[in-house]
Amino acid sequence: MKKYLIIGSGFAGSVIAEQLCKDNLIEIWEERSHIGGNCYTEREKETGVNIHQYGPHIFNTDNVEVWDYIQQFCEMVPYINRVKSIYKGKVYSLPINLHTINQFFNKALSPAEAKDFIQSLSDTSIDSPKNFEEQALKFIGKDLYQAFFYGYTKKQWGCEPTELPASILKRLPVRFNYNDNYYAMPLQGIPKNGYTEIFEKMLNHPNITVYLNKKFAVKDVDFSAYDQVFYTGPVDAFFDYKFGRLGYRTVYFEKHIAEGDFQGNAVINYADEETPFTRIHEHKHFTPWEEHEKTVYFKEFSKETETEDIPYYPKRLANDLEILEKYQNEIETLPNFTFLGRLATYRYMDMHHVIANALEIAQKFK
Ligand code: UDP
Q: Ligand 1 pocket: which residues have CB below 6 Å?
């Protein structure tokens, strides 16, 4: 039997553990007091609502293998995320679709008319968009961009959209029909009993030992005791920030409890720059099959990640990528180490990307 050390028990670490535990001994070090990383869910005591402790996680993928894999560990209930956006006191449909266009411009355009109309608004001087703003101006024109993207993006990322890569906007579709499904992926759901159950099942094996509240530092580990180390924490932290810190945005939440239904939807975005939060999530709407008299909702704020904050969104600005390259060169020289997951690769990854990548990596060690 080989002995593997895994740092972190989010999807990256847990999938590796689950895949390799039959023939190997696995040790997991988790610095938090719970497993599951940012996917951790827990019932809120006063309301009984299952909350996504680190912000909403809606499982969506086009990868059938990943979809089948995850359902070994949970009952996935089909769920469609329908997000609204409030701008200057009016509610609009998201992602930008025919309803949004007709609402915003006070029209009743058909799909073909809307396509022509948006094309007439688009900035045709932009050939290949170099940043978020250019991408938006090219695709939807100035008015929709300023209403739904400019203020929100400035709040979320803390910089001008001209400083951000176009790829961030490419995550969102623009539709010329009334489809208001936030995601374009064909397979979407929410685990019936929350995400924590998935991790409990994945890690429930006699060959896996999980140590909670155990912080990793290179100097504390006798690496010779392990055949391979799988590291899923922040890459810059591994190297004690010797080439500098990578930029991340973090989010934090203001919790509120109320009677009944607060906003009538799971997620409502606030597009105005003047509103200090980016969105409000009301978690009982993620489980419409449950009934709760009270409700719990969270205002989500965004800020730069400081030393004690949880890193969420890799910024990947030019300076970050220069620093990243130095860490990557260093990783190349390390034998028996695998860096995987969002934090260790400093990449914007959805849950299904992390799972698919971990499944692929695990194959090499089977
Ligand atoms: N975005 C926006 N307004 C919205 C929703 C999204 O400007 O109402 C921008 C924002 O910059 C965000 C990006 O579009 O980072 C991608 O949206 P997505 O919903 O994928 O956000 P994320 O997963 O980054 O929270």
A: 85, 94, 148-149, 152-153, 156, 168-169, 171-172, 269, 271
